[in-house]
Write a sequence for this structure.
């Protein structure tokens, strides 16, 4: 990974822009592409991870997206965000131990000022999957105690600014944090976190992007109740090949805050058979009959974007016999509303900020008043 490689990618990116500009299509008026160069550092949360850090993080992203056009009521609520897909290639601070990463993701890019302004700023959330070419292997890569699988989840959040330098081209500057892990599906799974700054360019195929607001009937609901049944799957140690099925039931209440934003709280009861094994491996804790039960209380902030919702749930444990991970229990979810009442969800459950516990797959029933 070096600047010369990024230069070649930028040349290719410019050629694609020129080719697409010569074409016409019904959606081209809302299409844009951008390319960004990233530079930063790995944020080791364990001493044995920092020991193998040899270099700074360098990477690049290529994104393709669409400007929302006002045809949905949530477009205006979030100031006409940009939606798209992207590819992120990056080194991971040590090519021999941690290898390189290639991630494919979907994203929501939201700016706070009117898109016609020359200067703007906002934030971006990206969720997807990452392929890492180096993982823990007892014989060939026993020093990689951060990642135990080649396929992992990818989560990135960034703050960014843009400055228009021509009718079609914006220059972008920003900084963000990225987390990669497999949700304890395969141990070891300490995860990798890196902080990078980035710069790049965005090219819009239409220099006069307009919105077409429609007179849509606003949802008059003020209260939301949700019950979700969830399942997870996890390992707890590379020393044992045991895997555990985690079952849970969650009840949630939320009240509309503004437009399509909802705030509330959720309580979740987990049956986690791995906890007895964790306690058994720790000689300082005495086992109890109900050690497999965990109860978490989480605040909830949901952003509804049509059928899809992004849900942020920071919280604490109300009951937790195995206390070594701490009292913090955070959840980040994506929900899909496939009927008026039913939804499916994918959730990353974590201790503190960046220690993934497991992935939750859920099915829920929702009603509103």
């Amino acid at each position: 990974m070096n600047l010369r490689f990024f230069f070649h990618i930028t040349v290719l990116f410019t050629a694609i822009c020129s080719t697409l500009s010569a074409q016409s299509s019904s959606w081209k008026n809302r299409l844009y592409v951008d390319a960004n160069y990233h530079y930063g550092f790995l944020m080791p949360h364990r001493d044995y991870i920092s020991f193998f850090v040899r270099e700074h993080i360098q990477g690049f992203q290529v994104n393709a997206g669409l400007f929302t056009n006002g045809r949905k009521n949530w477009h205006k609520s979030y100031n006409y965000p940009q939606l798209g897909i992207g590819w992120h290639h990056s080194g991971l601070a040590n090519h021999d131990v941690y290898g390189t990463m290639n991630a494919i993701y979907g994203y929501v890019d939201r700016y706070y000022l009117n898109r016609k302004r020359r200067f703007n700023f906002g934030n971006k959330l990206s969720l997807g999957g990452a392929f890492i070419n180096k993982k823990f292997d007892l014989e060939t890569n026993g020093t990689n105690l951060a990642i135990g699988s080649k396929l992992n989840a990818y989560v990135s959040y960034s703050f960014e600014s843009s400055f228009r330098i021509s009718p079609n081209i914006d220059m972008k500057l920003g900084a963000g944090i990225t987390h990669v892990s497999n949700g304890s599906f395969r141990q070891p799974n300490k995860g990798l976190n890196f902080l990078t700054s980035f710069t790049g360019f965005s090219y819009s195929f239409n220099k006069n992007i307009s919105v077409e607001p429609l007179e849509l009937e606003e949802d008059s609901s003020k209260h939301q109740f949700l019950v979700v049944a969830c399942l997870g799957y996890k390992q707890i140690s590379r020393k044992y090949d045991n895997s555990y099925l985690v079952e849970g039931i969650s009840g949630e209440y939320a009240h509309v805050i503004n437009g399509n934003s909802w705030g509330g709280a959720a309580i979740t009861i987990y049956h986690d058979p791995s906890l007895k094994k964790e306690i058994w491996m720790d000689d300082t804790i005495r086992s109890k009959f109900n050690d497999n039960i965990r109860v978490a209380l989480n605040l909830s902030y949901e952003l509804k974007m049509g059928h899809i919702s992004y849900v942020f749930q920071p919280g604490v444990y109300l009951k937790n016999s195995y206390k070594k991970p701490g009292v913090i229990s955070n959840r980040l979810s994506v929900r899909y509303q496939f009927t008026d009442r039913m939804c499916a969800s994918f959730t990353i459950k974590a201790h503190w900020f960046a220690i993934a516990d497991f992935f939750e797959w859920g099915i829920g029933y929702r009603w509103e008043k």
Observations:
- The first strand starts at residue 31 and ends at 42.
